[in-house]
Amino acid sequence: GQQLNQSPQSMFIQEGEDVSMNCTSSSIFNTWLWYKQDPGEGPVLLIALYKAGELTSNGRLTAQFGITRKDSFLNISASIPSDVGIYFCAGYNSGGSNYKLTFGKGTLLTVNP
Amino acid sequence: NAGVTQTPKFQVLKTGQSMTLQCAQDMNHNSMYWYRQDPGMGLRLIYYSASEGTTDKGEVPNGYNVSRLNKREFSLRLESAAPSQTSVYFCASSEMTLNTEAFFGQGTRLTVV
To answer: Per-residue pLDDT for A7 more than 70?
Structure first.
């Protein structure tokens, strides 16, 4: 099946620092999604990417859909304490009857005030 | 806006008991999903329903059954619960035909003793 490798597994940073995390896949994806999960909550969609090479921003968050369609990264600039949580990438391939979203294992972000 | 609603939020079962997790969405989405989340494993797909009337196995379907009752509702059943099924279960939905962004419920925390 499709595999998503997300790195790093965890990050511990100081408030104000920039953060970068990425996902790579063994397969081509048509869509990349980035989610954030707060403790005790369900994942919440941050950014959706639909086109190879696409670069999209949402406030302090920027994500890119890799040109090979096998990778994506998420950057957070000027981190703040409320950025703490688990960040997941997810990929979707609409080829054939494969409608399922595949998730990475997550990056746990801790921000030290 | 309710979005995706899961019930119950918490449940404790004895080994061998059965139960059904309920999920409903009010966004008129075509596709619905059940995931389980375990520490260090990310979100793993149990079953999904690409559209009303269809269901397909995901990555970890053993020990589970699903029913897409109608377009709004997608239930997950554990016929004979096992301790290995202790997890947090998330239901999600997406429009899928034009838009693959998936939206999640708040989760059901299940403990099997």
So the answer is: yes
Instruction: Inform me whether the pLDDT recorded for B73 exceeds 90.
Output: yes
Q: Can you read off the two tokens belonging to residue A10?
A: 């965890």
The nearest CA of chain B is from the CA of A103 a distance in Å of 6
A8: pLDDT strictly greater than 80? yes
Among the partner-chain residues B31, B33, B42, the one whose CB lies closest to the CB of A106 is: B42
- pLDDT at residue A71 is higher than 90: yes
Put simply, whether A44 touches B (Cβ < 8 Å) is: yes
The amino acid occupying position A90 is: A
Distance, CA of A93 to CA of A113 (rounded, Å): 39
**Cβ-nearest to B42 among A48, A92, A104:** A104
Q: What b/e sequence results for B48-84 when a residue is b if at least 16 CB atoms lie within 10 Å of its CB, and e otherwise?
A: bbbeeeebeebbbbeebebebeebbbbbbebeebeee
Across residues B81-100, what is the average pLDDT? 87
